Amino acid sequence: MTDPAQPTSPSSQPPSQPPPSVRPSPDRRRPTPSGVIATQVPARLDRLPWSRWHWRIVIGLGTVWILDGLEVTIVGNMAGRLAQHGSGIAITTAQVTTVAAAVYVAGACTGALFFGWLTDRLGRKKLFMVTLAVYLAATAVTSLSWTAWFFFLCRFFTGFGIGGEYAAINSAIDELIPARVRGRVDLIINGSFWVGAAIGAFASIALLNTALFATDLGWRLAFGIGVVLGLVILLVRRHVPESPRWLFTHGRAPEAEQVVAEAEEAVERETGRPLPPVTGEPILIRERAPLGFGTILRTVVARYPRRTVLGLALFIGQAFLYNAVTFGYATILTTYFAVPEGDTGYYFAVIAVGNFLGPLLLGHLFDSVGRKPMIAGTYIGSGLLLFATAALFQRGSLSAATMTACWTAVLFLASAGASAAYLTVSEVFPLETRALSIAFFYAVGTAVGGISGPLLFNGLVSSGRVSDTVLAFCIGAALMTAAGLVEAAIGVRAERRSLESLAAPLSAVTSSDQP
Fold it and tell me: Measured between alpha carbons, how far is 113 from 294 in angstroms, rounded to an integer?
């Protein structure tokens, strides 16, 4: 990622300044009341030009979405194989596409809430290591499944780890990435789910080929892909720092300054030029005890009711559409277009590529054109395209190829909008509640759309009646369109603004708080 618009200033410190351990900190330039920390950590982070330091964060943290896409796609495409005689597991296709899908999402919701709460209390880094370890263990054990109940249990804990990743990862990324590029980076990272989906689609083609792998072996090896990728991510993630924003709100100002100073020195060494000066007054922070659920709930609902409605609308709309499509598209292809079971991966790979291209190509517009018009436009646009797809399907005007093309167009827009849902709830609530806020909206939205979506959608599709599938399409389209209208009405203009200007930390000290 390039960032050519970075200004330089002759008044900045030269690159030959002292190392971070002895560099005078700009966070302590004026006296503050007892127990209060004056910090410019947010401004210092936001002014950094894009560098290898940021790439390390993106690679170490953002790649979790690839794991989720891989998991969901492989299980969806493997449903028929798991149910075959000789697969080594006693389970039906319907159980895989409905019960196992719902159990996975239920685990993700539970994990998001549990680990989100811990992330705000114990720190981003501890939890994004723990949650990845939970995912790796659960995925590895899934490959040993021999019966339905054990498979469901493994899917629950796999989702449990992935859900925790969402809360820990999105909060850490947004607190470390500069404000001017936060939108595009967040969208591309969240959109990388579909890179994993494409890998899963292509992998399933080979692993379903009985000429290469036995019926009871291919699906077990599929889960090993996630384990290998997860281990690589774990090695990179060890070098990602704790969020300085989290550190200074928990009374660990020296550590926060050390992380930022090391980043500044690394960037100056890489670019060979001094950083621009820090602008703006320091933020005054008073350390406070960890927040309980009651305080967080009052903050989210009572202090920011419009933002709460906005977050729920965005999450419910995208969760229903995406979970329904992800878990059910292979069934549509085999039921209505007689696509062989082993070939569904090709079609899904095309959809996956389109989904990733949406955030990749449109992401920069969320920082330049703005959040409100882009989120509203992508949600409403995808909803209208899905209504049109439903009409064409009802008339019998679509083939497997043209249906896939229609879905690719729908999800090109929807993917950018859905990724922006995570960005929105991460930006518009206070730092101390950020991880749990992400978890809350993810859990509620996904519980409504992610659990009911696969159950309802697969039930309608499996009936074999065109009218039922059209109804499923229209429900998803209506929810996406409604969410887009909510964004247009009450969305927050968060582009290029610091997180603290969007929602002041609960521990921030105002002039009225000072003696």
Answer: 14
Annotate 104-128 with b (16+ C-beta within 10 A) or e (fewer). Answer: bbbbbbbbbbbbbbbbbbbbbbebb
Would you call 285 helix, strand, or coil by DSSP?
Answer: strand
How sure is the predictor about 486, in pLDDT bands with cuts at 50, 70 and 90? very high
> Dihedral (C-alpha) 145, 147, 148, 150: value to the nearest 10 degrees?
-50
pTM, rounded to two decimals: 0.81
Compute the half-sphere exposure of residue 489: CA atoms within 13 Å on the CB side of its CA.
Answer: 13
CB 218 within 8 A of CB 207: yes
DSSP H helical ranges for 84-180: 93-94, 101-122, 124-142, 148-176
Closest CA to 460 of 448, 447, 476: 476
As a whole number of angstroms, the distance between CA 11 and CA 275 comes to 9
Residue from 355, 69, 340, 336 nearest 201 by CA: 69
Cα–Cα dist 179/495, whole Å: 8
**DSSP letter (8 states) at residue 242:** P
Distance between CA atoms of residues 213 and 201, nearest Å: 16
Q: Would you say 249 and 285 are in contact if contact means Cβ atoms under 8 Å apart?
A: yes
Residue whose structure tokens are 């920069």: 364
Task: Find the range with the poorest average confidence among 16-20, 175-179, 328-332, 508-512.
Answer: 16-20
String of DSSP letters for 398-454: --HHHHHHHHHHHHHHHHHHHHHHHHHHHHSS-GGGHHHHHHHHHHHHHIIIIIHHH
Amino acid at residue number 52: R
Query: Cα–Cα distances in Å, from 341 out to 168, 337, 401?
Result: 37, 11, 15
Which tokens in the block code for residue 94?
């319907």
Report in angstroms the alpha-carbon separations of 333 from 280, 345, 461, 502: 57, 10, 10, 45
- Alpha-carbon distance of 381 to 379, in angstroms, equals 6
Report the pLDDT value the prediction gives residue 448, as an integer from 0 to 100: 78
Q: Please give the structure tokens belonging to residue 90.
A: 């006693």
* Residues shown for the chain: 515
CA distance 429 to 302: 12
